[in-house]
């Protein structure tokens, strides 16, 4: 019997690109045999700002059924996959705010020894994808987490070209998530589940 693996996919998305990738990673992780929680970070923007962008307003409606993330989701997870659009080459404030609430769990060591990975999107190819993921991964080091990036571990990674994590160029929201991004999501999800399962099995046998 294979070792059970809990994967939390925790993301923030404004206009829906990251939400689409998050769903894909959650579905791929489930297909790989993991138990999955898909969770969204709470929105901080005022309603007027949301209503001013039809895509943003539509994404809020379309994802209303997805539970907001809580610290318990971090405790439950063996692996956490964070998703955020780039914000000036950094993590979106909504996801960062959630991460900033985890001080108590960090101090008690409950964030350590878990697998972490990340994904992102930007308007342009050089719009901060790598710096956003690297900024996110700085947090993983502080957690004492185990970073599992996709690397160039699958032939498809030489096509999408991003070893740091799944990423998508969305333009002004007019470039939908396509097969290249969905393939990257699958490769990353399967790798996260596989490595997490191996680590859990190894730690269990060492007890």
From TrEMBL:
UniProt keyword list: Oxidoreductase
Entry GO terms, CC: membrane
GO molecular function, one term: FMN binding
Domain Flavodoxin-like span(s) in chain numbering: 7-207
EC number of the protein: 1.6.5.2
Top-rank EC class of the record's enzyme: oxidoreductase
Family: Belongs to the WrbA family.
Protein name as it appears in the record: NAD(P)H:quinone oxidoreductase
Native source organism of the sequence: Streptomyces globisporus
